[in-house]
Write a structure and sequence with these properties.
mainly alpha; two-stranded antiparallel sheet; 2 domains; transmembrane helix; Flavocytochrome B2, Chain A, domain 1; 19 helices; four-stranded mixed beta sheet
């Protein structure tokens, strides 16, 4: 038609592009789902380090330095990223914050701002779709699958990080994170090992492989700590306590306690439990580098432990047969009870009729003792008048319930005066 043009219609500004993470993984697009930067940092480079180690002799001094630097950088994550910035379980002085920011940077796990923001989201939305590394999506996903696959950040639960944005150390580390990673992750390990002329060993062992082990240890908090162990404080969510996880994570393995009491600077509350991060923070407090170390009151902690024990007892109790519930028993008149007791061994204890016919020969006190209460109210006899019976006896008697007496307990005692009136 005259006057027509081939100009395409304008796009709808309100239609947003679908994030790759929200599309299914196929053989054609799987490479688009992969976060290649993270794969390089946590898979390919460590793989290179493992291969290079075959041609790089491990010297004793370098091995000792690598282990020492491992603990230093891991402490930057557990005491810095986790307990200081993510949970504010204590207050650190400026020098300590700078040291922790540098140490954590050497672990190559993202900036304090990024790490703490995701971890707060994890606590607020544990085991839900908004949990960045929910173990319900699989232990591999929780360990590091969530990092090697692209994620839609809009899917993560919202958290408040205004305090992190107000911390100049956090802001400085976030802005210069790549420089800090290169310096603390690789340069420092090489330079120190260079003091004994083992630059290459420092690069491979104290640098690359040490980073790999620190990363894997931290990842265990997201996976192993939500899969292995016990739940002494709450079992509604996945966090668990286990000494193996604690050993692998600088004391972060008492994770059930931590999720219940996240602002406590401790993960382990018993002196014999392994938590070097707690001990480090306590020592810093003694020399004035840390203050306001937060601890939940023992009374509140024991409440949680007792409530969980009660839940376990209730579940176990529900599995056992406690006899017919009283509410389901028929109501029997006293006269009917007396009449039926003439042909079958029935006794009344606490207003409940019990059929003890099949128990006569098994009674430990002898058949005659139990026959003395047949057709009568044997409450006093059962509860100490003749013998104070054990819990086992009470439980066994509950299995013999057949009815409840109209009028309740000690009927024979109060009905007789009524008849005399």
């Amino acid at each position: 038609m005259p006057g027509e043009t081939n100009i395409p219609p304008p796009r709808d500004r309100h239609v947003s592009k679908v994030h790759i993470a929200d599309t299914p993984i196929t053989l054609r697009n799987w490479h688009k789902h992969v976060n290649w930067l993270n794969v390089t940092m946590i898979v390919l480079i460590p793989l290179y380090g493992c291969i290079q180690a075959f041609w790089t002799p491990l010297r004793l001094k370098t091995a000792i330095w690598a282990v020492a630097y491992y603990f230093f950088t891991a402490l930057g994550v557990t005491a810095g990223y986790h307990r200081l910035w993510a949970h504010r379980s204590y207050t650190a002085t400026l020098p300590l914050r700078i040291i922790l920011a540098l140490a954590a940077g050497g672990s190559v796990q993202g900036s304090a701002r990024w790490w703490a923001r995701l971890h707060r989201s994890h606590h607020r939305y544990t085991d839900t779709e908004r949990d960045p590394y929910s173990v319900h999506k699989g232990i591999f996903y929780a360990h590091f699958g969530w990092m090697i696959l692209k994620q839609n950040p809009k899917r993560f639960g919202r958290t408040d990080i205004s305090d992190l944005n107000a911390d100049p150390v956090v802001v400085w580390q976030h802005r210069h994170f790549l420089k800090i990673v290169i310096l603390m992750g690789l340069v420092v390990p090489m330079v120190v090992a260079g003091l004994w002329d083992d630059w290459w060993g420092g690069f491979v062992y104290a640098g690359i492989l040490r980073i790999f082990f620190v990363q894997q240890a931290t990842f265990c908090v997201n996976s192993l700590a939500h899969w292995l162990g016990e739940q002494p404080f709450d079992d509604r969510n996945s966090p668990r306590d286990h000494v193996v996880t604690a050993l692998a994570t600088m004391g972060e393995g008492y994770h059930n306690f931590h999720h219940e009491f996240p602002s406590d600077y401790r993960n382990a509350i018993r002196w014999y439990q392994y938590d070097p991060t707690k001990w480090a923070i306590w020592c810093w407090g003694q020399v004035g580098l840390a203050r306001d170390l937060k601890m939940f009151r023992e009374n509140e902690i024991e409440k949680g432990r007792l409530q969980q024990l009660q839940k376990k007892v209730d579940r176990k109790r529900a599995e056992l047969d406690w006899g017919t519930p009283l509410s389901e028993l028929p109501v029997m008149e006293w006269e009917e009870f007396v009449e039926r007791a003439k042909s079958r061994a029935l006794v009344v204890v606490a207003g409940v009729v019990h059929d003890v016919e099949d128990f006569l020969k098994e009674h430990p006190g002898g058949k005659a003792m139990i026959q003395a209460g047949v057709g009568k109210d044997a409450t006093a006899m059962f509860n100490g008048g003749v013998y104070y019976h054990s819990n086992a006896a009470h439980n066994l008697l509950s299995m013999m319930r057949v009815a409840v007496i109209r009028g309740g307990c000690e009927v024979e005692a109060w009905k007789r005066p009524q008849k005399e009136v």
